[in-house]
Amino acid sequence: MSELAHAGADGGHDHSPRGWKRWAYSTNHKDIGTLYTCIALVAAIVGGGMSMLIRLELTEPGIQFIEDFQFYNMVVTAHGFVMVFFVVMPALIGGFGNWFIPLMIGTPDMAFPRMNNVSFWLLAAGLVLLVTSTFIAGGAGTGWTVNPPLSNADFHPGMAVDFGILALHLAGASSILGAINFITTILNMRAPGMTIHRMPLFVWAMLITAFLLLMAIPVLAGALTMLLTDRNFGTAFFSPEGGGDPIFWQHLFWFFGHPEVYIMVIPAFGVISQIVTTFSNKPIFGYLGMAYAMSAIGFVGFIVWAHHMYTVGFNVETRAYFVIATMVIAVPTGVKIFSWLATMWGGSIDFKTPMLYAMGFIFLFTVGGVTGITLANAGIDQAFHDTYFVIAHFHYVLSIATIFAIYGGIYYWLGKMSGRQYSEAQGRWQFWITFVGVNVLFFPQHFLGMAGMPRRIPDYPDAYAGWNMVSSIGAAITLVGALLFLWILYRTVTAGAPAEDNPWGEGATTLEWTVPSPAPFHTHEVLPEMGDDMQPAE
Amino acid sequence: MSDQAAPVTRAASSGGKSTRRAKLTAYALVGLIGGMGALVAAAQPMYRAFCQVTGFGGTTQVADEAKLAALIIPVEDEAAAGYVTVRFDANVNVKLPWRFRPVQREMRVRIGEQVLAHFEATNLSDKTIAGTATFNVTPYKTATYFNKIECFCFTEQVLHPGETAQMPVIFYVDPEIGKDINAKNETAITLSYTFFADTDQSQARKADAQRRAETKPVNRAGING
Question: What is the pTM of this model?
Answer without folding.
Answer: 0.88
